[in-house]
Every structure is written in structure tokens, then in C-alpha cells.
Task: structure prediction
Amino acid sequence: MALIQYLTQIQLDFGAVALLPQECERAGMRRPLVVSDAGVRAAGVLAKALAAWGEDAPPVFDGTPANPTEAAVRAAAAQYLALGCDGLVAVGGGSSMDLAKGVAIAATHPGPLKTYATIEGGSPKITKAVAPVIAVPTTAGTGSEVARGAIIIVDDGRKLGFHSWELMPKAAICDPELTLGLPPLLTAATGMDAIAHCMETFMSAAVNPPADGIAWEGLRRGWAHIERATRDGANDREARWQMMSASMQGAMAFQKGLGCVHSLSHALGGLNPRLHHGTLNALFLPAVVKFNAAHASLHQDSRLDRMAQAMGLPGSDAGGEAIAAALRAMNARLGLPAGLAALGVGSELFERVIAGALADHCHKTNPRLATPEDYRAMLDASL
Result:
């Protein structure tokens, strides 16, 4: 039996950030803690969000690292408890939103954070006591604003997923205005993250027809507008709106499950937190699409041809090479690295990456179950 849930309220439009006070009130937050990062503050984007409250702006934790860590969760949770806060408003990219979800657990549940990690059997331990979260994305990529999960590097160095419907934000405020100043390379990397979500979800063998439809449409929308948003994101408001929607759609869909792209990205990102998650997804996508293309279900359901259609391609070949080639060409046009070597990643890390990928929560929802040898081949192809 397939369980299908789309649970949160979404405000999507230019100027939507002005609705923050009323959404906090609707969620029962009287003293929220705003979770952000230094870059969002320096860019003036945090100020735009805080302006919604006027002179009554709530306190801010802006110490979110590029890849959220358990140490940062502890620091933010200590501030949350010391100030007597009753909810969290995440203003930032996926890191700030994931950190806020980690704080929502840590401030209301006992023990180390890894106790609640999905692969540790911790999801059922996340209770309704979790602090409420409202999410305001400032990038168009992770989609964490409509996701029930978070990715956090815990104290032992593992990059783990935390998943519970209790973590679903009470509201998502998707305001494309907040993305207009996003630099081109970050626009490209986060946009390819959204495209990866749509593609992996669409390929997943799990049963969720609404997710398939949302993922396909998100792929079509994202593929058609990512170059425009990257090239002229400060002025092309239509492209920014479309990418914000594609990001949100990818995450609405990935409740169905992801696959080897994210297994590899989570594992490598845990080993080197300086690597950008969306960039890694972009690099791994071509190899994973080719690997998945050998699975019969993608041909029986015409999924390769339908993905090619969404991308404006004439069709896919039996090996998925047409789609893989289009992905590599898109990465090049966007100015993203050509492979892992350009990021300083060598084969000496592969054994540890493979071990992490096999243990990742996304591994088993790939349409074709990967072996260690399969993962090594994908890594070799992505160098």
C-alpha cells in the first residue's frame, strides 16, 4: 500500500515574506528564534525577512555552517532554550532549514542527535513535542521548506538524515524576491540540486503517482529556466519564480524517495563538508542516470523517454546516454566543474564514499540496487 501525504501550507510569490508574522501566529509561535547564516545576513536578505516584523523582530541565530553540524545545532538549541523561544523560523538555504529542524529535535528531545537519525532507527523517536518550524528559502534548490527531513553531520563525522512527519514545516514562505541576488554559480548549483530531486524521484521504483507527476513537471520547469536564472538572475524575475517552484516541486515529490545520486553526495559531503551538495548532485547525475537506465522498469514505464521529453530532448537511447550527455552539457554551460577531480577529490576517498553510500537512507530507493562495484564505477565515471 502506498502512503501519500502532502501536508504543509505554501505561500509562493514575490513579496510572500511579508506574511511571516501571520504565519507565525497561525502556527502558535509567539517568540520564534530565526535561524540563518552569516552570508544571508551580509547579503541583506535576512534584513528583508526581519523587516516583516517591524520593530518587533525576533532574536536571530546566524551561526549556521555551510553543512550543518551537531555542534551548531547544540549552540542554536542553547540560545533557543535560554531565550524561552517557542518555535523556529529558518531563513536561508538548505543548511539553515536543516539546522532549524535539528534544533527542533534537540531542544525538545533528550540524548545525542544521532539517536534520532533514520538509519539508527530514530525516526519513531521524534515525537509531537518537536518545536514547530516555518521555512523561508533564500535559494531555489534543496526544497527543505516542504520536506520532512534534514541532513546533519553528527559528532562522529557521519552525514545523517533525520526524517519524521513531525519535522514538516508548518508553513513554507517561498518568495523569489529573496533569490534575486544569488550569485550565478550558487544559482546553478542549487538549481541542479532541484533538478536532481525531480529526476531521482521520477526514476524511483516506489509507488506514488502524484509524486511522479509533480517531479516530471518540476523537471520540465527547472530545465527550461535554470540557464536564464543563472545568466541574468538579478533581472529575470520569471526565471527566479520558475526555479523557486521547481525546487519546491522537487521536494514535494522526493517524499517518494531518492537514490544513488544522493547516497554518493551525502557520503562524500560527510567526508569533506566544504563540498557543495548541489554541485556534487550535478556531477553524479550523468553516471547514475546511465546506471539506472539498465533497469527494466524505466523502459516498461517509458520513464527515460518521458524525462527526455521534459528536457526537450528527442528521446533516450537504451543506455540513457542522451540524457547523461545533456546533463554534462548543461553542467558545462552553467559553469559547474567538469568532474570530481576539479574539486580536488581523488580515488583515495572512494572506499569510504562507497561505505557511506551503501549505508545511506537513499540507497535502497534507487530503482536499481547498487553494489560496491557499481558505486565505484559511478565514481570513476564522475572523476
About this structure: The longest strand covers residues 87-92. The chain is about 45% helix and 10% strand. The two ends are 40 Å apart (CA to CA). The chain has a mean pLDDT of 94.
